[in-house]
């Protein structure tokens, strides 16, 4: 049943219309004559009206009636009725939003019913279109995961805020927040958990700032915040501190208790910039500085920060080029078997032969490579290069030598890892038992089920597996039992304290005994002195690696060493920056 409000017609005209449609069973319409605009509006608001018939020359309507009615019609379609000499008036009403018009003298039953039906249908479609347009607008301006404003809307809001602040002489603070080590969570627990965490962070941010302020997600794990009308940078710093506290509380996601921290950079309008781009850029620069100062803190932008930021950017760009320009080199550090005193293998350690800075240490670029994802290409390059070199060692007298290659967390999460490794082995011809993959302890412990499945696949290939930097993370001995690993490497930090530090000695002893009781091999890393050598010898540790025997050396030196097969002296370490 359709309810049609009729406004402006005389009683006689209303009766005539009523008679026209009376008794139509296929499309039942009830005509409701109304006395005033107010009456129509009230019924419309209650949702009791489906269509409005407005007689433009009627008794009540004045010249502004259509406009007023249209504004108050809440999308209910309007059909105007006019005298035959006033088609122009009707047309202008249609242009202003009426769905249709009918000339009074020419109305018949079918024309009226068809017009009512089509008007309702058209306005329903228009409403649907409006909803999808609005949704489209919302999606274009909001982040699909967290529902927060995206970069586009953030920029727009910031520009508006800056105009307002300039007129009213107010200050604005922009906070640039980046989660610390978020990639590690994504890499180890998967993107599903990463997404949940981002949503959780977004919620906490919204709960921490005022409703009038804006939080946006710029992409990835980066969020930005506009604090309107901030008194001074001290005020902004207080909020940054509050945000850091709120974020560092544990998140409970998919049965995991996750701890995450953030680094925040703060820039102020007008002190640090007067346009949106430079204010955001400077907050970003300050954020980088906060990261550089140990993460989980905030920094206010200072002019002097620009230089370090650009250094970082240049480093990132040139590292990308380093891979394609063949600037990476592999060095090899021998591992000595304690029983025989002979070299049992080498660990491959990457270096960057930088055109200006000389040999750059992995400690300088591996974190950046991990942060940017470049580590997967680097690891693959090192794996291939190490296997190629190791294949040739037999020619120089090295028999059954093992080559150990480090693998990053990100590489470890790749589904294709077993295929990559067996591909490189097939390509280079290195026997699988000569390759040992080193994975750090914190990495294997992050996602135990995943670790077990990947390690199992690697074992099927026939390669050896060792846990690097053991003792630094939080290993559960129970899990360790389930991992098909061959060797533990005692972390260098425990070795360096020997023989002075009693705790280091106790921990090193415990690791060696643990490995032996679990039937695992054990390698002491970073052995620099005769005392340390004697200590591990007394524990019957399998092998050792360290400057006492040799620093990591270029492949030419490995070949020389193998040819002369002399006992390793303690050469001067190769200088790296
Ligand atoms: P790591 O795997 O634990 O490697 C041992 C590090 O200890 C090497 O540092 C080595 O040069 C150093 N070292 C060995 N003996 C001694 C010693 O007696 N005294 C001292 N003070 N240091 C010693 P390097 O080459 O700077 O590598 C640092 C870390 O970078 C490595 O630690 C490894 O985690 C990472 N890395 C190196 N190459 C690669 C690679 O190809 N891929 C990945 N993902 N990481 C790599
Ligand atoms: Mg290693
Ligand atoms: Mg290590």
List the ligand species.
Answer: ligand C2E, magnesium ion
What is the tally of helical segments? 22
Number of DSSP strands?
A: 21
CATH class of the largest domain: Alpha Beta
Mean pLDDT reading? 89
Percent of residues in helices = 40-55%
Strand order of the largest sheet: 13-14-16-17-18-19-20-21
CATH topology name of the largest domain: TIM Barrel
End-to-end C-alpha gap: 84 Å
- Return Rg in Å: 37 Å
The coarse overall form would be: elongated
List keywords for this structure.
alpha/beta, binds magnesium ion, Rossmann fold, single chain, 5-stranded parallel sheet, TIM Barrel, disordered C terminus, 48% helix, 20% strand, 21 strands, 3 domains, elongated, binds ligand C2E, 577 residues, 22 helices, Alpha-Beta Plaits, 8-stranded mixed beta barrel
What is the topology?
Layout: E1 2-7, H1 11-21, E2 29-34, H2 37-45, E3 51-55, H3 65-72, E4 78-82, H4 87-95, E5 100-103, H5 109-141, H6 151-168, E6 172-179, H7 182-189, H8 191-208, E7 214-219, E8 222-227, H9 233-248, E9 251-253, E10 256-258, E11 262-269, H10 276-292, E12 298-300, H11 305-324, E13 328-337, E14 343-354, E15 358-360, H12 362-372, H13 375-392, E16 402-407, H14 409-413, H15 417-428, E17 435-440, H16 441-446, H17 448-461, E18 464-470, H18 477-482, E19 487-490, H19 492-495, H20 502-517, E20 521-524, H21 530-538, E21 543-544, H22 555-564
Parallel strand pairs: 1-2, 1-3, 3-4, 4-5, 11-12, 14-16, 16-17, 17-18, 18-19, 19-20, 20-21
Antiparallel strand pairs: 6-8, 6-11, 7-8, 9-10, 13-14, 13-21, 14-15
The protein binds ligand C2E and magnesium ion (2 copies).
One magnesium ion is lined by residues 347, 406, 438, 468.
């Amino acid at each position: 049943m359709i309810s049609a409000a009729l406004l402006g017609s005389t009683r006689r005209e209303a009766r005539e219309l009523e008679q026209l449609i009376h008794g139509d069973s296929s499309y039942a319409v009830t005509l409701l004559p109304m006395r005033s605009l107010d009456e129509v509006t009230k019924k419309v608001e209650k949702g009791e009206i489906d269509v409005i018939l407005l007689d433009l020359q009627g008794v009540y309507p004045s010249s502004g009636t259509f406009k007023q009615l249209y504004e108050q019609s809440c999308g209910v379609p309007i059909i105007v009725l006019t005298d035959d000499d006033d088609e122009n008036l009707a047309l202008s009403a249609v242009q202003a939003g009426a769905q249709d018009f009918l000339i009074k003298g020419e109305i018949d039953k079918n024309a009226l019913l068809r017009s009512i039906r089509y008007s309702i249908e058209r306005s329903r479609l228009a409403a649907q279109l409006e909803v999808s347009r609005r949704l489209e607008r919302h999606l274009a301006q909001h982040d699909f995961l967290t529902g927060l404003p995206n970069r586009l809307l953030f920029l727009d809001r910031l520009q508006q805020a800056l105009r307002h602040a300039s007129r009213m002489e107010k200050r604005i603070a922009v906070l640039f927040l980046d989660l610390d080590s978020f990639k590690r969570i994504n890499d180890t627990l998967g993107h599903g958990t990463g997404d949940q965490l981002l949503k959780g962070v977004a919620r906490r941010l919204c709960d921490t700032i005022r409703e009038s302020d804006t939080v946006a997600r710029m992409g990835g794990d980066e969020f930005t915040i506009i604090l309107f009308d901030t008194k001074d940078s001290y005020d902004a710093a207080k909020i940054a501190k509050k945000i850091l506290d709120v974020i560092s509380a544990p998140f409970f996601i998919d049965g995991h208790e996750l701890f995450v921290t953030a680094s925040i950079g703060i820039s102020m309008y007008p002190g640090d910039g007067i346009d949106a781009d430079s204010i955001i850029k400077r907050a970003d620069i300050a954020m980088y500085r906060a990261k550089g100062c140990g993460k989980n803190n905030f920094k206010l932008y200072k002019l002097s920060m620009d230089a370090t930021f650009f250094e970082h950017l240049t480093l990132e760009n040139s590292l990308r080029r380093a891979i394609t320009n063949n600037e990476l080199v592999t060095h090899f550090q021998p591992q000595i078997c304690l029983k025989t005193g002979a070299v049992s293998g080498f660990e491959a350690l990457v270096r960057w032969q930088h055109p200006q800075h000389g040999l750059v240490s992995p400690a300088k670029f591996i974190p950046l490579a991990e942060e940017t994802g470049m580590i997967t290409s680097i690891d693959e390059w090192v794996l291939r290069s190490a296997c190629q070199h190791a294949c040739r060692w037999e020619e120089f007298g090295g028999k059954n030598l093992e080559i150990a290659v480090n693998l990053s967390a990100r590489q470890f999460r790749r589904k294709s890892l077993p295929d990559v490794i067996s591909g490189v082995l097939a390509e280079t011809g290195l026997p699988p038992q000569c390759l040992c993959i080193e994975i750090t302890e914190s990495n294997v412990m992050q996602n135990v089920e995943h670790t077990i499945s990947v390690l199992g696949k690697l074992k099927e290939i026939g390669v050896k597996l060792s846990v690097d930097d053991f003792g630094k993370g939080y290993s559960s001995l129970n899990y360790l039992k389930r991992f098909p690993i061959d060797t533990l490497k005692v972390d260098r930090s425990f070795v360096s304290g020997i023989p002075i530090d009693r705790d280091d000695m106790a921990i090193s002893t415990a690791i060696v005994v643990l490995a032996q009781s679990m039937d695992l091999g054990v390698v002491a890393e970073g052995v620099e002195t005769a005392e340390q050598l004697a200590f591990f010898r007394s524990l019957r540790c399998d092998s050792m690696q360290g400057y006492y025997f040799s620093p990591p050396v270029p492949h030419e030196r490995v070949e020389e060493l193998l040819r002369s097969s002399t006992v390793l002296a303690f050469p001067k370490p190769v200088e790296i920056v």
